[in-house]
Amino acid sequence: MEKDTLETVAHNAHLKLTEDETDKLHKEFTEVLNYFSLLDEVPVRKVTKLDPVGTAGNVRKDVPGSKINSDEILKGIDTYDGYVRGPRL
Amino acid sequence: MSSPDMSKIKELNEKYEMFRVLNSDVIKGDFLFSVSDSFVTREADTLCGSEILEGYNPPFDADSVIAFKEAGGVPIGKTNMSEFGTVPYTNGPYGIPKNPFDAERTCGGPSAGAACAASLLDIVSLSLSTCGSVLNSAAYCGVYGMVPTYGKVSKAGTVDAGSSVDRVGVISSKSDDIVKYAKILMESGDGKKSQIKTVGIPKGVTDNVSDDIKKNFERNLEILKSLGFEPKTIELPSMKYAAIACRILTTAEASTSMSRYCGMRYGKQDGDYTLESDEFFTSVRTEHFGTPAKEAILLGSYMRMDGTRERYYNKARMVRELMIEEYQSALKECDVILTPTTESAAPLISETSEMTMVESFSADRFTAPPDLAGMPVLSVPCGYDNGGMPMGMMLIANHNEENKLFDFCETWNKQFDIVKPEAVL
Amino acid sequence: MKIGLEVHVQLPTESKLFCSCSTAETEEPNANVCPVCMGFPGSKPVINEKALEYGVLLAKMLGCRIDDTTWFARKIYFYPDNSKNYQTTQHDRPLGREGVYYLNGKKPIRITRIHIEEDPGKTKRVGDSSLIDYNRSGIPLAEIVTEPDIATPAEAREFLKQLIQDIRHTIDMSEDGERSIRCDCNISVGKERCEVKNVTGLRNVEKALTFEAVRQTKLLKAGGKIVRETRHFDEERGVTVSVRKKEMEADYGYIDEPDLGVFNVKELVDSLDVKESPQNMILRLAKEYGIDEKTSKQYVSTSVDMAKLFEMLVSVADVETARKFTSGPISAGWRSFESDDSKNVDGIVSIVKEYRDGGITDVEGNLRIRSYMTGEDMDVISSGSSNLDEMISEFLDENPNVIEDYRKNDKAANRVIGHVMKQTGGAYSSSDIVEATKRLIGERL
């Protein structure tokens, strides 16, 4: 991985790394990607499933109703006047 | 059964650090169980081994926790794990589970505390198998570990690392408990008994394993023969690719799942709201995520980025389907597949903290491929090395053939003398 | 000029897309929330089957190719209204692809794809920070993406108007303001295009596109180059503004969503039938019965049921009779009739049958229909209306150009209406005057 790629990835993932961390990770990831490159040997084939067994999606009837009260949901949340607090937009 | 001696358990926990938190109010019940910290529980908060989720105590239980409660189980606490199940070895911040057989040694990563607790206490442990973690940790701690087929056990209420890989599993020092509790989770009654005869041994399976593991495995093959089983060599050339693919998928999926932690709605909400949103998110995530989570997020994001997604994320999914084909083709020639569970007995904790990422990945060499393929697996304790450390071997059956594993479990247990760690309660 | 739209329509389900929280409007913030739509760790989504049904109906309405299976994906981007910082949407396998929508029944606007996704919550700027309401988080949306086949901002508006009317008809949506349409608008005057994101409502879409067209044209004329970028429409100032460049760089890092699984929609596709869209009905009536498109548009716009009644009357009598009565007393009395549960079309049909069989005159027929539909006393109507009719007929005799003008623009009727209202000084209700005018003009067309 190029170092500036690592920086872009960190930026998009909303993580800030120190110079040291970037250097260390860059080295680690280079080794990891080298190890992962073994997969290049595997021929391309069609992906037919999203998981090992091809789970068919469950559907639910369109009936509103909540088992949990909204108070209980908001209990652990930093709110103001019933709104969830957030950063500057 | 009588109420557990919580003060004794607490004492043991001081040394072995298997529980992050013990429930203060443990009532009487039919059996006791521990819950990995990635399962949502009402009795205690759920942190997934990460500071960023401190304070998270949602008003519902994971489905598997409910299943155990309804069967008369009583949860005694949340066990320690590696941060969000992202790395093979736990390293804090709430405690590093110490191996019951040697406190200088590790119990593994995502299922470390669960296996440790099962080994030291008379309980069954619920844990999420991430990249083979349930079997790994069970083998390191000298106990039984079992994971049913992907999709068989509801994951509602578990905090995913890799959504298409993770499965709920059980760990216990008693073989009949493993069978009993796995069945409760699967909501299946007593199925037909499944006789195993042929045991497939992948070619090269003892290459590059420790001497003790190799000798022990060969000895056990003789024991199996004497029990009437027929070992047969099979070819599983894609195992080495599958271990990598499992790690890629888990990391890629985990990096998306962990996007949600940003200082709002749950966990730490102590950021400076006057910061612009991108800065706010970055500051909270950087401050509160540990190194394992950060590494997984960065690596995982790269796996699914535009431009690299085909080479890693998509290729990993192709490898999954290839591996399943290989397993199923081999399982036409044999009833189950047998391999060692790990390359060596539990490493020293000091060694694990020096390991590079690639070195640490070798922990899942045998356990990750069947996890990727969603095959039902069972690890049984099968020997002790020169240092007295437990070793395990594992069986892989085809999708939905758990009964074959249950059958083997019973057969094995009848003739294996399990050694309990000295500290056991 | 090339314009393409990404239209977001809220689907009128009772519960949210991935959880059972209610979708009902509420004043209270964060009242309809649960672990799933709040993105709580450990929560898992389960899809609302009605949303899939609506999606299939819309895909069919747009003539899309629908594969047997469909699935969802995670689209990662960080924003306070996004409760998981990823949106569960569709990427590799949208519900429908390669459709077409005929603007005015003639111009094909190609539909690239239609897919289903969840709406994020709503943010509110407050002082130095923000407040978020997650009531909207998880509400199902259909996203319809067009190729850049639209030629002007006005055409974009007309496209949206017709599309929305058809959507409302296909999935039984009621007329509703806030549950409205949001568009991402892509426009290129030259070679490079710009995107104006998240524009709400038809008027704003036209305004935003018009501003962009002018901006881009000016820039090119002055020798400059258009930079491909994302812009935001400032409603108050009526201008588009560039957003920070870095928003463009973020890669969504899509992965498929294993928690939901794969949905086999073949059965749904085979079992659901799309009702004839209003646009199609307008064209068909004009063609089939040889009436003016203006007239069929007026019928369908008033009410599809009234247009259906017109067809019933054609089969009972003939086109001319059906048209006379429908354009006249039936149109005028429709609103009162519609709101009265005790009345039904049979009452009207039987009166027309009497006329057909020669039992009553057309004037009597008008009166009786009018009286049946509105409940007014026939005598009252008759004395009033005959005078009114005389007045209007007189005006039309003296101003035959009104008829010609009306053919081009129905606003020409206002000249008659205005004249009569002045003459009668409030003796008749405006709706009476409008009805009579339209009827009498209709008879002369």
Would you kindly provide a written description of the structure presented here, covering whatever features stand out?
The complex is a heterotrimer of chains A (89), B (425) and C (445). With 89 residues, chain A is mainly alpha-helical. Chain A contains 3 helices and 3 strands. The longest helix of chain A has 18 residues, at 19-36. Chain B is α/β, with parallel strands linked by helices. Chain B has one domain: Amidase signature (AS) domain (Amidase signature (AS) enzymes). Chain B is globular, with a radius of gyration of 20 Å. The relative contact order of chain B is 0.16. By secondary structure, chain C is of the alpha+beta class. Chain C folds into 2 domains: 2-271, no CATH class; 278-444, no CATH class. Chain C has helices spanning 49-61, 153-170, 202-221, 246-249, 266-271, 278-289, 293-302, 304-316, 319-338, 345-356, 362-374, 378-398, 401-408, 413-424, 430-444; strands at residues 2-10, 47-48, 69-70, 73-76, 86-89, 96-103, 107-118, 122-126, 129-133, 140-146, 182-188, 194-200, 230-234, 239-242, 255-256, 263-264. In chain C, the strands form 4 sheets. An 8-stranded mixed β-sheet of chain C has the order 6-7-10-1-11-12-13-14. In chain C, helix 14 (413-424) packs across helix 15 (430-444). The longest helix of chain C has 21 residues, at 378-398. The two termini of chain C are 38 Å apart. The model of chain C has no long low-confidence stretch (mean pLDDT 90). Chains in contact: A-B, A-C, B-C. At the A-B interface, helix 1, helix 2 and strand 3 of A face helix 7, helix 8, helix 9, helix 10 and helix 12 of B.
